Amino acid sequence: MAAIQRKIIPVILSGGTGTRLWPLSRARRPKQMLELTGDETMLKATAMRVADPRMYAAPLVVAGTAQAEAIEAELGEAIGALILEPAPRNTAPAIALAALAADRGDVLLVLPSDHWIRDVAGFQAAVAKGRPFAEDGWIVTFGMKPDRAETGYGYIERGEALADGVYAGVRFVEKPDAAAAERYVAGRRHDWNGGIFLLKAGVLLDALAAHAPDMFEAAGAAMRGQRRERRRVHPDGAAFRASPAQSIDYAVMEKAERIAVVPASLGWSDVGSWAALYDAAEKDEAGNAAGGDMLAIDSAGCLIRSEGPLVAAIGVEDLVIVATADAVLVVPRGDSQRVKEAVEALKAQGRDALL
């Protein structure tokens, strides 16, 4: 009789703040709690993507304590456990906490809570394709096929084929300059690093022990000293704060040897800027992406959203215009990464109520 295959455990990382989408995204209402690409919040859409009980167990959600009530209100009984970080320490320590909450033989699917995937069926097919490699001890990453020379994303270089549609990962490349990005896209051996990983809990923990021992020890001590309240898990604060703050890419992926890449065309976006949201959004015949109470006259190529007053855009092109009850953002769409300059200026002015 064939062995019963364990269900994949989704690990949803929900600790980010998403200030690049200010003024809509705030510390008290971060990007993953916004309805940006549909009728569901980004967090809910992520959870729904891994809701098939035939394939997935209930997810482990890793987040900050301040978001606990909002996450429970959004996901309810669907959560397997809500692991609350005592302090932000980037993605590697967060994933370590989840791996320690699982059995070493469990396969984890690590997912950012605030990314958008158009082709959900294609996503499930990619996970199924990568699963045998994860079961065999590989760290599987999903390479999002690039449609432009993007300098805002990291890349993964593919090597030899391991199976149909699965390749050895040669190296991770951080955000390149424009010339390098052009080479990567033209060469067709590089994919965007979408930050989605499939691997056994024990494989991750062994990699951390080898490549980031201080982090491994801190996360282990934090989970040994944990406190539980129903589905909430509170790791020991003092132990966890001793961990280095580092991304999973730096701590593990750039150093591990058995990396497999599953390239996939999923209509993926990290929705990391207003320009990225514009690219992902539905548009009218003039190329405007709209939401809320707005009016566009003789305007084209704009992203216009309002959560407060009527926004009337007349005779403008390629702008981002976002209005809330207490702030209005106007920026050329191509310069939308400069939103962080407004956030930094408000911090310097001590206007924390707007952040």
Description of the structure:
The chain folds into 2 domains: 9-269, Spore Coat Polysaccharide Biosynthesis Protein SpsA, Chain A (Alpha-Beta Complex); 274-354, no CATH class. The chain has a 5-stranded mixed barrel. It contains 11 helices and 19 strands. It is of the alpha/beta class and 355 residues long.
Mean pLDDT score, rounded? 94
- The outline comes out as globular
- SSE order in H/E notation? EHEHEHEEHEEEHEHHEEHHEEHEEEEEEH
Class per helix and strand makeup: alpha/beta
**Which sequence of strands runs across the widest sheet?**
6-9-7-8-12
Helix content: 25-40%
End-to-end CA span: 58 Å
Q: Briefly, what CATH class of the largest domain?
A: Alpha Beta
In this structure, how is the largest beta sheet organized?
5 strands, mixed, barrel
Number of strands: 19
CATH architecture of the largest domain: Alpha-Beta Complex
Number of helices: 11
C-alpha Rg, in Å? 21 Å
Q: Can you tell me the number of structural domains?
A: 2
- CATH-wise, what's the superfamily of the largest domain? Spore Coat Polysaccharide Biosynthesis Protein SpsA, Chain A
pLDDT < 50 runs, ≥5 residues? none
What portion of residues belong to β-strands? 25-35%
CATH topology assignment of the largest domain: Spore Coat Polysaccharide Biosynthesis Protein SpsA, Chain A
